[in-house]
Amino acid sequence: MDATRPTRLPPLVPFASYDDADAAVDQLISLYQRNTAFIRDAFREYGAGTLEVGQRVRACYPAIRIRINTYPDVDSRLSYGHLVEPGVYMTTVTRPALFHDYLREQVRLLLRNHQVPVEIGESDLPIPLHFAFPEGEYAQGEYSEVPGHTLRDHFDVPDLAVTDDAIVNGTWRGRSNQPRPLAPFTGPRIDYSLQRLQHYTSTSPSHFQDFVLFTNYQFYVDEFVKWARDTLASGGGGYTALVEPGNHIVTQETAAQPAPPLAFNPQMPTYHLKREGHTGITLINIGVGPSNAKTITDHVAVLRPSAWLMLGHCAGLRTTQRLGDYVLAHGYVRQDHVLDDDLPLWVPVPPLAEVQVALEDAVAEVAGLSGWELKKIMRTGTVATIDNRNWELRDQQEPVLRLSQSRAIALDMESATIAANGFRFRVPYGTLLCVSDKPLHGELKLPGMASAFYRTQVNQHLHIGIRALEHLREMPGERLHSRKLRSFIETAFK
Question: Are residue 179 and residue 214 in the same domain, yes or no?
């Protein structure tokens, strides 16, 4: 290889100032399209065998930068959209067309709150070859190996050294002359998650909606699909389409037609009931366990959803609870362990008033109860989340003592993980569980009992979750994104 051969780069586009959010985002889109096309064109040369041995090709992520010289005096009620102290801040950007509305809002808020222009230009962070392709195209197959030279000889590939969660975890430590983070995720981190979302859910990231329901039971998926198709057929709710695994699109005209068979079943089947402005509902069947819960929320978070809720089942821990009662979590005992390194156990995960009220109101509306009567079927309290599905088989003294000391009223395997990752990623979160067994009191989840329970409760529980998201959708974004989610030194972007 000729080490002296210069790297082939597109012409440098220096940073330029913008005081209009739409123009700034348009420039991001233009830069990204140009640079990814540059990489793809060189890849075609590689595949055709015309890219010279030793010739490296590189193009970099576009970036947003802003310089603040004063301590801003902003509305103290705002949780995002501003910076707390003077400095230079920057973030790399990927797929700006996908994030168009999000980026426009964040830039608009910066311009409004700081009264200085933003700067759009090219960073020095390379776009990996594998992330330079549009959806459905990949750098693999017949071009992955060409005799005499490989992809790594010519192109940048994903680099885990610059793909991490240091910013959102609050552990980022940059050099003194390095711009501070402007957004919670960098371009490579977002690209990584977009690829993972397609893999796990078998749906395009472009279909995800801003309001997300997580469940771990197929019963809920079946009921959601039925309701979504019926809603589309009737033209209600402002919904425009249902996207099913395999990116199968259902419209009002095709709502009665069955879905085609899938070539393979995705690990986390996902359904998107779409609405203008991404204000619809995404439902994800995450499967069982805290590891799955962390995995999917790690990736959904880069889409910056407005809220996510967990609808699941739990073991009731109080003798007064009945099968089918609801538990609205307002605290968590975190024994899931999968987030211990990212969010230490000493960090509390607080309830968010806006989400709690929306869930309680939804239970009252769907169940047709209020006040003292509502307390018959729902109670708020602490939920314990563990990583051992068969915890009942352990010596009962230790777990029972811990549950008693924590005042926990329910136990499951996913809720604390989803809530903690919501807190960690600054995504409003909530949990509404349904009591499906009471193992400490002799009521185990046996086949006959479970079947009857599912038939009677799934429908109501799902529609409570849907109604709660509708309440949250009606709130202004600034109100929904609680200040509890933010620290005293934060990125400006939501």
Answer: no
